[in-house]
C-alpha cells in the first residue's frame, strides 16, 4: 500500500506523479511535481532553496532562477497567490513551506500494465462451475508447454485464464498480453518484446525474446488470439523452439493448431432444467453467475421460486455464454426479471428458428448485443458507437474529447451501469474499456451510421493534442514513465491505420505520426515507428512544401533507429541527409545540428576521421547560432573525439577536459535525446582512452570505473553500454587486466541482450576473442572474431576494425599462417593511410613486427625491424606513451631472444652469421 496526499480539492500519489483536482489531471512538469512531493513529505517545515535544489536536481548545478520558475508554475496550478497563499508559503530569502492540512490515504499500486502478477493486483476472479476446468488446465500446463483455451466469444476464456494464473505458485512469473488491442498479427513479437523490455535491433526479434527468457520460468498468457490466429501460431512455435522453460497459455475462439498444442475447449456454463426451483437452480453455474451479477447490479438480489423459471429461461436462451448472461443481468436496474425474459425472447426471435446448436456462437452473442443496443436511449447508442474508436483502456478526459454529446459524464455512467462499458480503478483515476465483442459490434454500428470519419478525426486530434503537450516529458530520460501514455498505444495504432487507410485522412495521419514520435521512442516500437513514418513520408514527398517541417522531422525519425541497425545502414544516412537539406531550407538550426551530428557519427563509425573532422567544424560554426549555448560545448566533445581517432591525443585530452568543465550544470536529458547519449559519458569515454594512450593507465582505468558508475546511477543504459563497449572492455584488455575485462564483457553482454543492440554484442564477441587469443585458442579466436567483424562491416561500424584485425592477425600467426596475417596488417595500414585513422597505428606496426619475426625467412628480421621502427616513430609523433612502451618492450625482448638463441647454439654447428650493423643496432632513443 502506498499513501496518496490529499489537500483541499487536490490529490497526488508519488508513484502516479499526476496532480489531480477533483479527480481531473492538472498538467504540471516533472520538476514541479518533484518539488511538490518534497514539500508534502515535510508539511509545515521550512525547506531552504538549497535543500529543494539538492532534492530535485541531485548532482547538478542549477541556478535559483530555475527553481523559481518551477515553483511559480506549481503555485499557479494550485491557484496560490503571493499575497494570500493557501498551500505553499514563501519565506523571502530563506525558502518555502507547505502550509495546508494534508490527509494521507493508502491505495494499491500496480507497477506495470503488461507484466501482471494478478494475485497481487486484485483478488482471484470469482468463477462459477469452472473449478475442475482450472485444475485440468493447470495439469495440462504441467504436461505440455502450450495450452489453448478455445471456445466462442464471451464464454469466459479470459476469466478462466486469470483463475489459472491465480492458482499458480506465489513465485510464478506471468506476462499477460491482451491481443484484442492489436489488429495486426505481425505486431505480436514487437508487443511481447516491448512488454519484456527487449529492444530488438535485428531481423530475428523472436530470437531476441528467447535470449531474454533463457533463464526465466515464465508463463506467457496470450489472450484473444482468434483474430490473429495464424500469426499467433507461428510466433508460439518459433518461441517455444528457442526456449526451454517458457510455458504459454492462449485463449482463442479456435485452436492455434501449433506444434505441441494441447487444446481445452471451454463449454458453456451448465444450465438447469426448466422446472428447477430456486434452491435447485442455484446449484447450476449459469444461474449462479446471473444471480451474482444481479446482486451486484441491484445492491441486493435473491432468487425466488417465482423468479427462478424466468432466470432459467434467460440463461437457457443465452446458451450459458457468460458474457451474454452478465449483460442480461446488468439490465435488471431498468426492468424486472419477468420483463427481461420477455424482452430477450423478442430480441432473439431469430434464434428460435431451426436448431440453435447449428448456429455459430458469435451469432448468439451478436443477438445479445443487438438486444442490449436497442434498449439504449438514442444518445447512449451514439455514445457507444463513438467510444468504439478506443482500443484498450481510456480515461474520462479522453471520452469527453471524442464524444459529441456534452453530457459525456452521464453517458459514461449510464453505459457502465448497463454493463456495456467496464470501469476499472487500478489507480485513483478510473479507466474504462469496452469488451472486445462489444467494441466490434459498436464499430459496425458506427460504420453503418456514416460517422466514422468524424469520430476518428476527433479521436486523432485528441491524441495529437495529448502527445504534443507531453513531448518534453516523453523525451525526458529521468521522468517516471507515465501510465497515461502507455495506454494510448493501442488507440494510436488504430488511429494511424484509419488515417492512412482508404477512407481516412492522410494529412491528419502525418500530423499524428509526428506527434507520436516521442511515444514510439519511449516504447521502443521501432517497427511501428518506421511503418508510420514511411507512410507519412510517402504522402508528403510527392507534395513539395505542403508541410516541410513535418517532413524534416519524419526523415530524422527514419534515420534515428537505423543508426544502430545492421540492416542497410545507408538508409539511415540517406534519411539524415534529406533531413539536413530540409532543415537548411527552413533555417531550423536544431535539426541541422542533429543531422550533422548523425552524419558525423556515421563517419566516425566507418573509421573516416578526416571526414568527421570537417563535420565537426561545420557543427561548431552552426552551434554558434543555436539558441542552446550548450550545443557549442557538444561540438567541442565531437571535435575532441575526432582528434583522438586522428592520433592527436594531447589535443583531444585538452579539448575534452575543457568541454567537461564547461558542461557542468547543463541538464542531461535534452542532449541525451537529441544526440542519443549522455554527453558527459561520451566525453569521458574518449578522455579515458586518451589517458591510456598518453601513458597514464591508472587514471584511465579510474576514469572508466567512475563513468560506468555514473551511467548506472543516471539509469541511461544506452550510455552505459557505450562506455562498456568503447572504453571499459578495450582498456581493461590493453592494461592486461583479464579479470576486469571479463567482468566488463559480462556487463556488456547483459545490457546488449536487454536492449537488443546487435552492434555492441558483436563488440563483446571481439573482446572475448582476444581473451581466447591469450589462452592460446587461436582457431576459436580467429573464427569468432571473423564472424563478428563481418557483422560490423555489414552494419557500417568499422571504427574498431583495425584493432580487431590486430587480434585476427595474431590468431592466424599462432596457426602458422604468417603471410595471411601480414596481409591483414597491411590492409589495415592502407586503410589508416587513406582515412586518416591513426589512433592505434603504432600497435599495427608493432604486431606486424612480431608476426614478421615468426616467418623465419631471410627477410624476416629486416621486415620486423622496419615495422618496429615505424611503430616507435608513430608513437613518439603522437605522444602515445602507452603504445610506445609496448613497442619498446617487444624490441628489448626481440634482442634478448636473439642473444639467447646465439648463446645456446650447439658448438658442432657453424656460428650464425653476424647481423648487419643496421639490423643489430637499436633504433634511436630505444631503451
TrEMBL record:
PANTHER family: HTH-TYPE TRANSCRIPTIONAL REGULATOR RV0890C-RELATED (PTHR47691:SF3), REGULATOR-RELATED (PTHR47691). This is Transcriptional regulator. It comes from the Bacteria. It holds the Pfam family Trans_reg_C. The keyword Secreted does not apply. InterPro entries: AAA+_ATPase, nSTAND1, OmpR/PhoB-type_DNA-bd, P-loop_NTPase, Sig_transdc_resp-reg_C-effctor, TPR-like_helical_dom_sf, WH-like_DNA-bd_sf. Residues 2-100 bind DNA. Keywords: DNA-binding, Plasmid. Residues 899-927 are annotated as: Disordered. One of its GO terms (molecular function) is DNA binding. One of its GO terms (biological process) is phosphorelay signal transduction system. CDD domains: trans_reg_C (cd00383). The lineage of its organism: Bacteria, Pseudomonadati, Pseudomonadota, Alphaproteobacteria, Hyphomicrobiales. It comes from Sinorhizobium fredii (strain NBRC 101917 / NGR234). Residues 2-100 form the OmpR/PhoB-type domain.
